[in-house]
Amino acid sequence: MKTMPSEAQIEASAFAVLDTCRKQGLRVTTAESCTGGLIVGALTEIAGSSDVIGRGFVTYSNEAKMAMLGVQAGTLSNHGAVSGETVLEMAAGALEAAADDADIAVAVSGVAGPGGGSPDKPVGTVWLAVQRKGQAGHAERQHFSGDRRAVRIKTVGRALELLLGAAK
């Protein structure tokens, strides 16, 4: 989603993720940095979501990524928190930490702004990963325009799309 999704679009995407996961008997976990819990929040805003959502991890700091999700210090020092390598480790770590309580994980880390960007990772750069238990994860880089809120909401929209794709 390059344009900012509306509240109704986020809600529709969250409903679709939950419905598809219910039909497939799948449970979801999230590992969030730049969104600070907005993805799991969008899913749990919907009544009855507890049959699909058991937990979400907000790992804003590098220390939290390492302690809660097992992201390697070397990954963070060599690639940075905003990288494909890091979000892949976040997704895998969320699945491991959730154990039998999750079948699919989505992970996000980015530069929401207004500061914190660099020439290599300007404001709006977001890495997302999705992984299904027992399968290799998939990471992608997005660049979302707009202010901090827009970057975060667009990230939620794309994360829900990735979850839906992984659940099918």
Radius of gyration: 15 Å
By CATH, the architecture is named: Alpha-Beta Complex
Domains (count)? 1
Mean pLDDT: 97
CATH-assigned homologous superfamily: CinA-like
Q: Assign the CATH topology.
A: Maf protein
- The shape, in one word, is globular
Based on helices, strands and strand pairing, what is the structural class? alpha/beta
Can you give the helix content as a percent range? Answer: 40-55%
In the CATH scheme, the class would be Alpha Beta
Strand content: 15-25%
Could you give the order of strands across the largest sheet? 2-1-3-4-5
Number of strand elements: 5
Q: Low-confidence segments, ≥5 residues, pLDDT <50?
A: none
- What is the string of SSEs from the N terminus onward? HEHEHHHEEEH
Put simply, the count of helices is 6
Strand count, sense and barrel status of the largest sheet are: 5 strands, mixed
Features:
5-stranded mixed sheet; 168 residues; 6 helices; globular; Maf protein; alpha/beta
Question: Would you mind describing this structure in some detail?
Answer:
It is a single chain. By secondary structure, this protein is α/β, with parallel strands linked by helices. The chain has one domain: CinA-like (Maf protein, Alpha-Beta Complex), CATH 3.90.950. Helix 1 packs parallel to helix 6. The mean pLDDT is 97.
